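Async update (no meeting this week)

Hi team, since we skipped the sync, here's where things stand on the single-chain job. The sequence we agreed to prioritize is pasted below, unchanged from the tracker. I ran it this morning and attached the output directly underneath so nobody has to dig for it. Comments welcome in thread, and please keep replies under the output.
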Amino acid sequence: MAAVSSLKTPDITLYTGQTPNGIKISITLEELELLPYKVHHIDVTKDTQKEPWFLEINPNGRIPALTDSFTDGQTIRLFESGSIMIYLVEQYDTEHKISYPKGSRESYEVNNWLFFMNAGVGPMQGQANHFFRYAPEKIPYGISRYQNETRRLYRTLDKHLKDAGTEYLVGNKCTIADIAHWGWIAAAGWAGIDIDEFPTLKAWEERMLKRPAVEKGQDVPVPHRMKELSKDKEAADRAAKTASDWIQRGQKKDAEKI
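Output:
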C-alpha cells in the first residue's frame, strides 16, 4: 500500500471526466497503488461543472478537481491538474514511486516538464483540437497556428527524450511529469497531429501505456477511446459535432454573463 502520512487518513474524492486532464489524476492515483479514492463522474455536456456545489470546489468550473481530508482534519479542495498532482505526491508518495525527493535536482527537473505541459502542450493542443474539430467554421490560420505550435512542442519532447537517452522525461523513473503528458500525447490524432513524426516520443507513449496504472487509470471514469476514435472518421465526426454543440452553448451562456 502507498505510504500515507501518519497525521491523517485519506478521504479522497476525484471529480473528473474522460479528458486528457482528467485522466492525469486517476493515473496518478493508480500509480500510488492501493491509495483509496472515490470517483464522481462530471458530465461536462450537461454543465455539471457549472453547478453551484461544484463551483464551491473549483470556482473556475473545470475538471479535474479533488477533495481530501487535510492534516487538520478539515476538507481541502484542489483544482488545476498540476496542483492536484503535486499535492498527491507531496502528501502520499513518501517512497518516491512517481516523484523525487523534494529539493533534489531531479525534483526541479520534474517541475520543469510539468509546467511545460500545463503552460504549453495542454493549452496549444487544446486550441488545435478546438479549431480542427469543434469550431463552427474552419479557419485555416487557427488550425495551422495551433497544430504547428503543438508539433513544435512535440519536437521539443522528442529531442529531449532522444538526447537524454532515458526511458522517461526525468531519468528512468516515471513521474508526474510523464503522467501529465501522456493523455495529450495519446490523443495526438484528435488534434490532427501524426505521432509517427516523432519516433522517440511515440516509443515513450507506448512505453507508458504498458504500465498497469496507466492502463487502468486511463479508463476512469469511462473507457478511453481517443486513439480508436481518431482513426474512425465517421465516429470522430459525430463525436466532434456533439462536443461542438455543447461547447457553443457554453460559450453563449458565458458571453451572456459578461
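Quick observations from my side:
Residues 105-134 form the longest helix (30 residues).
The radius of gyration is 18 Å.
Reply here if anything looks off.
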